[in-house]
Specification:
- This protein is an all-alpha fold.
- 55% of the residues lie in helices and 0% in strands.
- It contains 14 helices and no strands.
- Helix 8 crosses helix 13.
- The chain starts with a helix and ends with a helix.
């Protein structure tokens, strides 16, 4: 009887810690924030008709390829990465996949004013390496977005999305990826390697942080990236494949271990009773 009462006490204490204390402590460390907003509703939609891709290409050629490459269209940067670093402090990204991985509303606003769209006005006050194109009409910006969407690949691997969306700042050393492009130096902050980030943060935290870093870490230098929900899921899936590659195997063994422990507990209890019964 005493053993049974002790078991009940252990179960109650464990339950209080697991379902009470731990969630409370987690809530104090990571307060609840608004869920991820994949429509970027704080950004004003463009007041324009459906974009014209042909006209958008002309605008891109006249304004964007002076800095950016678009390798999908055979357009290379007009200068070397070393010269770009010397001139701008960063290497401008290739735009081949921008129309696929970035939300349409975010992309239009990023062209209009990158610091506002990425929530970096606290860090860049008129000195962002990419100039604002708010002098363009909304229709012209919509045309550019339509062009970028028309040349974007139909699909990308998880790693390809990660490299284009995150790989200019973050290393993934467990998969032999090192960030390049000068952004780590330009942002003047330590940028973490993401190889094991999937283990140190839960999925809710990662989704809300990638969607809008300011929700979780106000004042951070990390920009809001503006990924679509699909692209963000692919980024996190890639992080999981690198940092937690045994997750499926581990979860499949979990219930088997619980059954084994319960079975061995019953055996141990019956064995103990037999020993003490024989002893008396």
């Amino acid at each position: 009887m005493k053993e049974f009462l002790a078991l009940i006490v252990v179960v109650i204490v464990t339950g209080v810690i697991y379902w009470g204390v731990e969630p409370f402590a987690h809530g104090q460390m990571y307060p609840k924030v608004a869920p991820a907003d994949y429509t970027f509703s704080d950004l004003k939609p463009l007041e324009a008709q459906e974009g014209n891709a042909a006209n958008g290409k002309e605008i891109v050629v006249a304004n964007c390829v002076a800095c950016h490459s678009i390798k999908a269209e055979g357009m290379e940067m007009p200068f070397s990465p070393e010269d770009a670093l010397a001139a701008y402090g960063v290497v401008p990204p290739d735009l081949s996949s921008a129309g696929l991985i970035y939300d349409k509303n975010f992309l239009g606003n990023a062209i209009k004013n990158i610091a506002t769209a990425t929530k970096q006005t606290h860090k860049f006050s008129g000195n962002h390496p990419m100039p604002a194109y708010d002098w363009m009409s909304d229709q012209e910006i919509a045309d550019v977005v339509a062009y970028l969407q028309s040349i974007a690949p139909k699909e990308m691997t998880n790693k390809e999305v990660f490299i284009d969306a995150c790989g200019r700042c973050h290393d993934m050393k467990y998969d032999k990826w090192s960030a390049n492009g000068g952004l780590k130096t330009y942002l003047e902050t330590k940028v973490p390697d993401l190889s094991m980030m999937i283990r140190s943060r839960n999925l809710e935290y990662l989704h809300t942080f990638v969607n809008d870093p300011q929700k979780r870490l106000a004042g951070t230098a990390m920009p809001r990236v503006g990924l679509t929900e699909q692209a963000e899921n692919q980024v996190i899936a890639y992080m999981e494949s690198v940092g937690d590659s045994k997750k499926a195997e581990r979860e499949s063994l979990g219930w088997k271990l619980v059954v084994f422990m319960v079975f061995m507990g019953i055996v141990a209890y019956l064995w103990k009773r037999k020993i003490w019964r024989d002893a008396h």
